[in-house]
Amino acid sequence: MSRRRAILRGLAPCLAASLASIAYAQAPAKRLPAAPVPSKSLPVSGRVVRTFEATGIKRVILRAGDAERAEVKSVPGGRSITVSGMPQGGAVGYHPADPSWRETPASSWGLGFKTRSFGPTLVVSTENEIRYIHHDYRLGSLAISVPQGVEVIKENRELTGEGAPDLAPPAGR
User: Fold this and answer.
1) Is 52 exposed, middle or buried (0-12, 13-18, 19+ CB in 10 A)?
2) Mean of the per-residue pLDDT values for the chain?
């Protein structure tokens, strides 16, 4: 036992020095201000913008989850059609079994626009907009600019979990 005590007494200064250095390392440091946490509803990359040739187009049908709220601008002498929207949404409240799962920001979801021409009518539809249980990804603050004289028809589309664009022919117009 005396040999054991001698060893412990010899280790005591080392142990004390180790504990002191650990305690010193864990001492509260000066607190730095926390970095701002980005809002999940505000995209990092900004607006999604697409521009299309307007030659021969007399009517544009805009199909989106929030098409009725789109701002329409008529441009005298314009030669193109420009549509844009702000990626919004996320998967708030979704709790998967996979602990490494992270929510995809709306700006990285792949939201965009697709078109299909039907003679003088151009159908413009959002792509990858979804609304399914906890997942809600969409383009908000929609805006479309068209040459003067081009009619814009806004059609809200029902969002599901699919996200495919609605490029169906225009209904008997």
Assistant:
1) middle
2) 81
Helix H or strand E segment including 13: helix 2-25
Q: Which residue has the tokens 């009725």?
A: 68
CB 138 within 8 A of CB 65: yes
Task: Tell me how far apart the alpha carbons of residues 128 and 138 are, in angstroms, rounded to a whole number.
Answer: 8
pTM of the model: 0.71
- The whole-angstrom separation of Cα 140 and Cα 68 is 11
Strand partners, 103: none
Report residues of the chain scoring pLDDT below 70: 1-45, 173
**pLDDT, position 3:** 55
Which uninterrupted H or E stretch holds 15? helix 2-25
- Dihedral, CA of residue 155, residue 158, residue 161 and residue 162, to nearest 10: -40
Contacts of 115 (CB under 8 A, 6+ apart): 50, 52, 122, 123, 124, 125, 167
Domains of the chain by residue range: 48-156
Calpha distance 25→7 (Å, rounded): 27
Round to the nearest angstrom and report the end-to-end CA distance of the chain: 101
